[in-house]
Amino acid sequence: MQGQRSRDVLYYRCRFPNEYALANKVSHPRNVYLAERDLIPPLDTWLARAFSPHRLHDTITRMHAAQPDPAPAPEAEDAMRVITECDAKIARYREALEAGTDPKLIAQWTAETQADRAQALAWTRTPTGKHHLSKEDIHAMITSLGSIRDVLADAEPQDKADVYQNLGLRLTYDPGKQLVRAETQLDPHKLGIRSVSEGGLEPPRPIKGTSTSS
């Protein structure tokens, strides 16, 4: 969605061409509008409540429990495929040796294949960085932002935007239900971790928006 001002009111607008919807078999209104004034107050209230001191422990526990199992890194999947192929080659070399193929040639092939296998095996043992944050990690990352409630209550728009960014806030608007789903994805670089996803917080209350199909 993109920002748009109309009659001194800020809106978030999503424009979806009919041609794109038809080509991708997606049902979507041509235009969706969501007024910022209808979004920010309930969003800030929800965040302030979720990260208030008396609820912080519960919020961290839920965020920790909601972390998905990390998917295998593409490199690791490729490495496992190489290992399987190398094992199959070595088995065929043994059959060829028993069938009378030159032992020196078999030894050369086997050495090359074993080297490839060892390299692939090393890939599988390389940390991917995609692991769960501990509750202590999550607590440290949240408290490093200061009092979220105070910042949201008094901050300028840019300071609020910084809080949203540091929390990794992601909003998904359903115009049919007039509902915004809020999720957080903490910045892993604060702990030197490459990738981690957070979630598990209830969405804020329904927020009014408009959509048009013409």
UniProtKB/TrEMBL annotation:
Residue segments, region Disordered: 184-214
Domain of life: Bacteria
Protein name: Uncharacterized protein
Species whose genome carries this gene: Streptomyces capitiformicae
